[in-house]
């Protein structure tokens, strides 16, 4: 059929850009186009089930807030029923007591379903290596993207979401191995980044004079 | 501030009050387990004491001592603004006889706290309306906060997936193997107080 | 419809009523915490409610026994994770009580300022989430916007938005940044403005008030017997605030009021939190005026405070001190202490038992919302199913603290 180069997400860790060759008699032209269309539709309209337990839930709330708007990714609609959702956000620590609940919720979801491990506790148990914590939800359910952080910055979570969207667009082959969000460094803090404290017209630095001297030191 | 509380307790219960101290400003009394409920009722009902708020109840395990489990009750009086700590010791090495009267009839707030002490430390409360586990699941065996329960022993409710089943790596490497690396203060010193570090500090009450 | 003209026995036409069991499972839309409420319903009325917690039990107390005294700070942050600075400060004060240390004045003011910022963040989250659960999504977004401003300040100061681990025994991890006071002074009026907008939208809304008024009421005496503290207790009329009754840090030198409710219902709890938010703002403004701009933030006790990095890299004494403090931990004197501060939900207490080594023997947290949630079943009995969500939301049960 031809090569299909899959664009790796901005933070894809485990694999660089890969080429996929689809065999001619396995995939028809129309089917691939339909797959691509379905992939596009699915990735931009994810219905999320926020399985929120702990501190990462605060960052999840911040994600839905206007500043780190999740709505621009199409993923802001929380469906509090697993039957109606296709993305399971596992946010926060999963204790042994919670594990059967998580498994049941995952089993109640219908294919195609995706799982996002939000935070270090969901990815690997975090620093709670004790009698009561499940060391990572992949011990119980298959996971598509891991977002480490305690709690991860909302920008990191959006990286993870974009990585997941690439996997969804890439089809079944792209989902063979899970992705991990790696840290990346945004350009150094400019004064104007204190968005909320900015007045609309004048120089934001006037609002906080001490930041003038900080900027001068940085230069 | 409330030395009077300890004095009243000693006056009323005499030899059942085994020890008292006021280290670090906290008035503490250790009483015999047999008078636990009577002492509590006295503290609650005596008008000059009026301890109406149950602040906290917990268990502290001293496995080198007999009896090993110490049940610690903190009380506060909203009107008089004084506090007291009441302790009692129960349970032998195998935690036999680790039973104490329940105080739920005196302070309803102790309902969940007693369940927690039962769950975490294994002390039973006679007369508690509904003594079952609260933080751990009912299938859990053992009492985690006892010193003899190893922190890493898990009892999973859902069996973990294997790597074959998953098809992807799911065992994550810990930063140190079991025989590598200094465990940063963990288990480095015995817990019976035989530490040279004590000499650096003066006893409570002395000048620092 | 024509009236029935047959004689009926009392209750003959009623539907058979057996109690129905409904499980409001550990994974539920109410954003407050993971809790399971097993309900016995008779129609819409709750006959019995069994509140089951423990779905976020993370073994905090057991983990503390495996590290050093300073390694407890990250765990402590994740207890009440909406106001982590309050937990940090509370734990640091507890260990300092055991060691007999007094931190310098600048550190006391700094701790108060960061603590009150955390308290504002807590109350914004609680009230915002409560509004959202009742369907008012917009005030939630406004309150989260205000919370983001606080988190910006905390990120500038501590490096992290949420779980700072910024407290240390004997002081703080770093001194205040030069921009701290200006950032606070710039942010606070904007936060108040957002809160006022939210209030204007909610408190004049008939539906919102009806869902909260006289729902989940409790008397002061019952609340005290249950061990309630904090905004939930103050809403019943009992003016017990640890900052006023047993002042710590410099709370006796600043001027603030303690908002108190009358009926102890959900609306009072909602309003008490908003009132406390304003008082916290008042406290922060006074603290910023009085906090010195120079001076040490850590007390200079070599037994607990890490030396400067210069000393560690150039002198042997610095290296050894650093090594011993990190590897073995600060050797805290033997004994036990109960130290309490006003957390976001009430009296946050730490009962510490030390055996003289660098590893804690027992760290017990007295979680304010444990006992508050213990009283939930009493508030729900006799009420309707739809009252669960506002009542539970107003109690501000934080899973990390309740299940520790």
CATH topology of chain B: Beta Polymerase, domain 2
**Hey, which two chains have the biggest interface?**
B-C, 55 and 62 residues
Low-confidence stretches of chain B: 176-208
* Strands ordered across the widest β-sheet of chain B: 1-2-5-4-3
Largest sheet of chain C: 3 strands, antiparallel
Output the number of helix runs of chain C: 17
What string, H for helix and E for strand, traces the elements of chain C in order?
Answer: EEEHHHHHEEHHHHHHHHEEEHHHH
Mean pLDDT of chain B: 82
Helix content of chain C: 40-55%
Percentage beta strand of chain B: 15-25%
Can you characterise this structure?
The complex is a heterotrimer of chains A (219), B (208) and C (404). Chain A is an alpha/beta fold. Chain A folds into 2 domains: 29-180, Rossmann fold, CATH 3.40.50.12280; 187-219, no CATH class. Chain A has 6 helices and 7 strands; from the N terminus they run ββαβαβαβαβαβα. Chain A has a 5-stranded parallel beta sheet with strand order 3-4-5-6-7. Chain A has a two-stranded antiparallel ribbon with strand order 1-2. In chain A, helix 1 (29-43) packs antiparallel against helix 5 (154-170). Chain A starts with a strand and ends with a helix. Helix content of chain B is 18%, strand content 19%. In chain B, strands 1-2-5-4-3 form a 5-stranded mixed beta sheet, with helices on one face. A two-stranded parallel ribbon of chain B has the order 6-7. Chain B is elongated. The two termini of chain B are 22 Å apart. Chain C is mainly α and 404 residues long. Chain C has a single domain (60-403), classed as Cytochrome-c3 Hydrogenase, chain B. Chain C is 48% helix and 11% strand. Chain C has helices spanning 60-64, 72-77, 84-99, 105-133, 137-158, 180-203, 206-212, 220-226, 231-234, 242-245, 266-290, 309-314, 316-327, 368-374, 376-380, 388-395, 399-403, and strands at 20-24, 36-42, 45-52, 167-168, 171-172, 335-342, 347-354, 362-366. Chain C has a 3-stranded antiparallel beta sheet with strand order 1-2-3. In chain C, helix 3 (84-99) runs antiparallel to helix 4 and helix 4 (105-133) runs antiparallel to helix 16. The longest helix of chain C is centred in the N-terminal third of the chain and has 29 residues, at 105-133. The radius of gyration of chain C is 24 Å and the shape is elongated. The N and C termini of chain C lie far apart (59 Å). The chains are: A alpha/beta (219), B alpha/beta (208), C mainly alpha (404). Chains B and C meet through strand 3 and helix 3 of B and helix 1, helix 3, helix 8, strand 6 and strand 7 of C.
């Amino acid at each position: 059929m031809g090569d299909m180069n899959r664009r790796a997400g901005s933070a894809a860790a485990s694999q660089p850009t890969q080429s996929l060759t689809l065999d001619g008699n396995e995939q028809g032209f129309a089917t691939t186009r339909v797959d691509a269309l379905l992939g596009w539709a699915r990735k931009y309209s994810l219905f999320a089930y926020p399985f929120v337990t702990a501190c990462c839930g605060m960052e999840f709330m911040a994600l839905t807030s206007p500043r780190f708007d999740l709505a621009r990714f199409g993923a802001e609609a929380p469906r509090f029923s697993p039957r109606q959702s296709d993305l399971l956000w596992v946010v926060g620590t999963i204790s042994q007591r919670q594990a059967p609940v998580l498994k049941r919720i995952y089993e109640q979801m219908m294919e195609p379903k995706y799982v996002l491990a939000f935070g270090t506790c969901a990815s690997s148990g975090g620093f709670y290596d004790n009698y009561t914590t499940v060391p990572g939800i992949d011990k119980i359910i298959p996971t598509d993207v891991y977002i480490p952080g305690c709690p991860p910055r909302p920008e990191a979570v959006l990286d993870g979401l974009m990585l997941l969207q690439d996997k969804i667009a890439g089809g079944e082959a792209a989902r063979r191995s899970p992705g991990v969000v790696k840290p990346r460094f945004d350009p150094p803090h400019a004064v104007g980044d204190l968005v909320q404290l900015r007045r609309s017209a004048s120089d934001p630095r006037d609002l906080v004079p001490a930041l003038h001297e900080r900027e001068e030191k940085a230069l | 501030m409330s030395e009077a509380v300890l004095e009243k307790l000693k006056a009323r219960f005499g030899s059942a009050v085994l020890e008292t101290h006021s280290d670090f400003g906290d008035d503490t009394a250790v009483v015999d387990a047999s008078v636990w409920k009577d002492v509590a009722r006295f503290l609650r009902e005596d008008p000059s004491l009026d301890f109406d708020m149950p602040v906290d109840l917990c268990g502290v395990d001293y496995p080198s001592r007999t009896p090993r489990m110490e049940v610690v009750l903190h009380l506060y009086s909203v009107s008089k603004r004084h506090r007291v700590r009441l302790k009692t010791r129960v349970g032998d090495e195998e935690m036999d006889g680790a039973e104490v009267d329940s105080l739920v009839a005196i302070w309803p707030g102790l309902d969940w706290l007693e369940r927690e002490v039962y769950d975490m430390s294994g002390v039973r409360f006679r007369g508690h309306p509904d003594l079952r586990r609260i933080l751990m699941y009912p299938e859990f065996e053992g009492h985690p906060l006892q010193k003899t329960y190893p922190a890493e022993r898990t009892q999973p409710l859902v069996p973990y997936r294997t790597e074959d089943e998953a098809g992807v790596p799911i065992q994550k490497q810990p930063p140190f193997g079991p025989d590598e690396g200094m465990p940063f203060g963990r288990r480095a010193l015995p817990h019976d107080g035989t530490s040279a570090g004590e000499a650096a500090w003066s006893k409570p009450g002395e000048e620092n | 419809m024509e009236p029935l003209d047959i004689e009926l026995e009392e209750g003959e036409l009623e539907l058979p009523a057996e109690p129905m069991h409904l499980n409001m499972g550990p994974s539920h839309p109410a954003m407050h915490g993971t809790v399971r409420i097993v309900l016995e319903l008779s129609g819409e009325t709750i006959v019995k409610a069994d509140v089951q917690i423990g779905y976020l039990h993370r073994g905090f107390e057991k983990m503390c026994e495996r590290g050093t005294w300073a390694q407890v700070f990250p765990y402590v942050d994740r207890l009440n994770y909406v106001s982590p600075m309050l937990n940090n400060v509370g734990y640091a004060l507890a260990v300092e009580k055991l060691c007999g240390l007094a931190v310098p004045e600048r550190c006391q003011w700094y701790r108060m300022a960061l603590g009150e910022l955390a308290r504002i963040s807590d109350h914004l989250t609680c009230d915002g989430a409560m509004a959202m659960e009742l369907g008012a999504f917009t005030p939630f977004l406004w309150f989260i916007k205000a919370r983001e401003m606080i988190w910006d300040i905390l990120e500038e100061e501590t490096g992290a938005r949420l779980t700072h681990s910024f407290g240390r025994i004997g002081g703080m991890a770093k001194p205040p940044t030069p921009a701290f006071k200006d950032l606070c002074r710039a942010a606070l009026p904007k936060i108040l403005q957002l809160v006022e907008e939210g209030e204007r939208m909610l408190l004049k809304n008939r539906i919102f008030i009806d869902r909260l008024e006289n729902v989940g009421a409790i008397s002061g005496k019952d609340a005290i017997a249950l061990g309630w503290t904090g905004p939930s207790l103050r809403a019943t009329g009992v003016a017990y605030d640890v900052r006023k009754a047993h002042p710590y840090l410099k709370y006796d030198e600043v001027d603030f009021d303690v908002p108190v409710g009358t009926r102890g219902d959900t609306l009072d709890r909602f309003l008490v939190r908003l009132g406390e938010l304003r008082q916290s703002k008042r406290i922060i403004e006074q603290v910023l005026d009085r906090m010195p701009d120079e001076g040490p933030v850590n007390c200079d006790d070599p037994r607990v405070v890490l030396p400067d990095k210069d000393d560690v890299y150039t002198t042997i004494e610095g290296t050894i001190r650093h090594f011993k403090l990190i590897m073995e931990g600060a050797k805290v004197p033997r004994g036990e202490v109960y130290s309490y501060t006003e957390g976001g939900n009430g009296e946050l207490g730490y009962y510490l038992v030390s055996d003289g080594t660098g590893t804690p023997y027992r760290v017990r947290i007295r979680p304010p919302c444990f006992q508050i949630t213990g009283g939930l079943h009493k508030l729900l009995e006799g009420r309707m199913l739809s009252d669960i969500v506002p009542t539970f939301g107003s109690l501000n049960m934080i899973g990390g603290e309740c299940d520790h």
